[in-house]
Design goal:
This protein folds into two domains: 30 residues; 95 residues, Sandwich (Immunoglobulin-like), CATH 2.60.40. It has two helices and seven strands; from the N terminus they run ααβββββββ. Strands 1, 2, 3, 4, 5, 6 and 7 form a seven-stranded antiparallel sheet that branches. The relative contact order is 0.22. About 17% of the residues have low confidence.
Length: 135
């Protein structure tokens, strides 16, 4: 009976330690939600797209990291034809982008037809973001 009590006490202690560690990491002030981290990145200029040859395209523009943390920020551009259909995408990132800095992103991708419009979104943020692995 004494061994059962020790096993039960050990299980309770282990569970308490695990819950404590889990709560601490979930409330870590150095980790943000993905939605919040994305919201701190502003797209400061209209994106521009240019053909690189063949079906390859480059999309570029300027953005600012208004957060208090450095991040790896991933961008996705979509190229649209005159009727509003998607005809291509381009992706890229600003790596180890310091807090408070403005930067120029260059995204590389492909288009299957002529485009008339390009849009860019912040598709992911890593570093100091809950649930996102560090690069």
């Amino acid at each position: 009976m004494r061994n059962a009590g020790l096993v039960l006490a050990g299980a309770i202690l282990s569970t308490a330690v695990w819950v404590s560690v889990s709560c601490r990491s979930a409330n870590d002030p150095n980790l943000e939600t993905l939605e919040y981290a994305k919201s701190t990145i502003s797209l400061d200029s209209a994106p521009t797209a240019q053909a690189l040859g063949g079906n390859r395209v480059e999309v570029s523009g300027e953005a600012t990291n208004h957060d208090r943390f450095q991040h790896d920020v991933y961008f996705t551009a979509t190229l649209w034809d005159a009727s509003g259909g998607s005809v291509g995408t381009a992706t890229g990132k600003l790596e180890d982008w310091p807090a408070g800095h403005r930067g120029r992103y260059k995204l590389i991708g492909a288009a299957t037809a002529n485009w008339t419009k390009v849009s860019v979104v912040v598709s992911n943020v890593k570093e100091h973001v809950r649930g996102q692995a560090e690069d």
